[in-house]
Design goal:
Helix content is 31%, strand content 16%. With 393 residues, the protein is of the alpha/beta class.
């Protein structure tokens, strides 16, 4: 298989699952005259018909003045792009709807706090080859495209996805793959973007097969939000391709229990049944999930669909994100109200990505009350204290 071959457009998506349209989905599909249930289940139709302009989103709902200014100016910062499926999850009567806050621009995005950066994770300085970030000793981040189905308003890579029309090419891929081949210390490759699942099956197969063919690569992951924002993309054909390159792992970006719909459950069941372990990466966002109750509900829903809560990220100080960021104490309090209060499988690791390129730094509540030679005094989730005899040999 050559790069030229895999770039060709593929056939239309297969018939989707037998899931009836919800009332909200019926409301949204009526905005597209002539659209059918078959169209709704076609991920390419969803991509083509994303809400991207003021006129389009105004047909969906009445915007607040802050949203109106945000939508009209979004192209100067990060374009708006919402698939009809995900738009149907928006509560059009609630300005505080967690889906709405994540997907519809606000004018406060155009304000820049002193600590905010275009590249808060310092990816550019860890990238010798365009599209490949080599920060950690044994693993790399392979950014294979610059497009997502839906642009999260707090996106840490908004510098890349920009107007939503950029794409990488096969010469870029070849340079990245050659870098991985030459660096034999790399055993772990995370294929991300943008969102790699916006690529067609053949291009995805080319990339996955090329990475898997490198002898020293032991572990391949796919980082994506597509199962959440566009679950129609998870087709039997895609799953069959993934199974050819087992083992694969998948990191999925979930932020709120409202995102766990029947279609998302169906998509995640297909992924899990294919033998692909899934972990969730959640960004802590003010007004979206900044409470223990909301986080616990999300993590319980994820476990029910075989997605293991993996990380809670402190929101990166990306330009225009001040309205989303919470205090670190908020995250620590959430962790205290998870550990011991629910199953350990529902307790992720809370991390701050060190601004400027420090990598993931775990942040936890302090359970050590005191230390002295031969013993450690600890507190449990109830606040009770216990002494552990600490061997000194």
């Amino acid at each position: 298989m050559t790069p030229t071959t895999v770039i060709k457009e593929e056939a239309a998506a297969s018939t989707g699952p037998n899931i009836p349209l919800s009332p909200d989905e019926e409301r949204v599909i009526k905005l597209f005259p002539g659209a059918t249930l078959s169209d709704w289940e076609d991920w390419r139709w969803q991509i083509r018909n994303r809400f991207r302009t003021f006129d389009q989103i105004s047909k969906l709902m009445k915007l607040s003045p802050e949203e109106e200014r945000g939508v009209k100016g979004a192209g100067d910062k990060l374009t708006m792009s919402i698939p009809p499926y995900f738009a149907a999850l928006i509560d059009t009567k609630d300005a505080g709807c967690p889906i709405r806050l994540q997907s519809v621009p606000l004018d406060c995005e155009f304000l820049t706090a002193p600590e905010e950066m275009l590249d808060p994770c310092g990816e550019e300085k860890s990238s010798e080859v365009h599209g490949l970030v080599h920060r950690y000793p044994d693993r790399v981040l392979f950014l294979v495209n610059e497009m997502c189905a839906m642009y999260c308003r707090y996106c840490t890579r908004s510098r890349m996805v920009g107007d939503g029309n950029h794409t990488l090419n096969t010469s870029t891929y070849d340079a990245a793959l050659n870098y991985i081949r030459k660096h034999t210390e790399i055993r772990d490759v995370l294929i991300s973007g943008g969102d790699p699942l916006t690529l067609g099956d053949r291009m995805l197969e080319y990339l996955i097969s090329s990475v898997k063919a490198i002898p020293h690569v032991e572990f391949v992951r796919i980082g994506t939000r597509i199962p959440v924002t566009l679950p129609q993309r998870i087709t039997p054909e895609l799953i069959a391709m993934f199974k050819k390159y087992s083992p694969l792992w998948m990191s999925i970006h979930f932020n709120h229990a409202k995102e766990v719909t029947p279609r998302v459950k169906h998509a995640c069941n297909m992924i899990a049944d294919a033998g692909i372990p899934m972990g969730s990466q959640t960004v802590l966002l003010r007004g979206v999930n900044d409470s223990s109750e909301v986080m616990k509900k999300l993590f319980h829903e994820l476990l029910k669909i075989r997605v293991r809560p993996y990380y809670i990220y402190q929101c990166d100080p990306i330009v225009g994100s001040n309205h989303f960021r919470t205090s670190v104490d908020t995250g620590i309090k959430i962790m205290e109200n998870l550990r011991g209060h629910t199953t350990g499988y529902a307790v992720p690791t809370y991390v701050i990505d060190g601004p400027g390129g420090g990598g993931k730094i775990p942040v936890s509540p302090n359970y050590v009350v005191s230390k002295q030679p031969g013993s450690i005094k600890l507190r449990n989730f109830k606040g009770e204290e216990y002494t552990y005899v600490d061997p000194t040999y």
